[in-house]
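Researcher: For the annotation table, I need structure tokens for Phenylalanine--tRNA ligase alpha subunit. Please keep the output clean. Sequence:
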Amino acid sequence: MKERLQELQAEAIAKVEEAADLKALNDIRVAYLGKKGPITEVLRGMGKLSAEERPVIGALANEVREAIATKIEEKQTALEQAEVERKLSSESIDVTLPGRPVQTGNHHPLTAVVEEVEDLFLGMGYSIVEGPEVEQDYYNFEALNLPKGHPARDMQDSFYITDEILMRTHTSPVQARTMEKNAEKGPIRIICPGKVYRRDDDDATHSHQFTQIEGLVIDENISMSDLKGTLEAFAKKMFGEEREIRLRPSFFPFTEPSVEVDVSCFKCGGNGCNVCKKTGWIEILGAGMVHPNVLEMAGYDSKKYQGFAFGMGPERIAMLKYGVDDIRHFYTDDLRFLKQFKRA
């Protein structure tokens, strides 16, 4: 896999150097850096690697992407400059005419947050796994230790299509499916981004449709300290190296023990302000050790394997990261709002 990534880098850079125009260059960008490109295909196969190899390959993949992207930008600059020089030499230009403003697009803030989280966990050796948004009741609830009639189902008021089919209320079903499909019942390290749906009234902090990113690690000798270390690295990456986290006891049916995770306030540094409601801490996600029942239902030996899981909302992270006070801003397509997030 390492050799394949190095081959892709050399191959892409060679094609970039040969690109004769901007269209050809953009085709190369899509072919190699797009979500259906060969680098992504390599990363999807990381689940077959050993725990020691995954971080190495993840880091190398990020380096290869950056090297290709840098080369493309350099080539683009050169091609654009050459095009300007060609036009200057072949056309007469009235320099007194006013310029024409060009509207350029940029990443949606939620897309930017999701990609930032994905890049972080890919570098830590995780794989990205997706699943259906229209889900079976079994995977959405029962395989996660929520049998029919369980009172905790009321925590996630659902859109049912039939008695057994619904719009998924979280991305945890992807974890259940991944554990079930793992025929060797060996280690797993994945994150699962995607849309989820709940019967909720839309207001400044709630939406009937939103995004989740959930993570799952299954292996031998996994402990709460592994979970804390992972989430600490995540918090420092997203909110700054000075951030600290704390774990508070909570309840989720699919984890035991369960915790709510807070990050020290990045505005006041933990002294107390309007953002953290004078507490010095801001809640960012829920997590815990995978419940033995969930492991057993997926075919794992809970005496041999342990694991941890966590779930976060990109909207919540983006609101905190960028100081957005209303979740509805992310979905109204107001250009005045979206233009604030243009990348340099």
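Researcher: And a one-line annotation?
Model: The mean pLDDT is 87.
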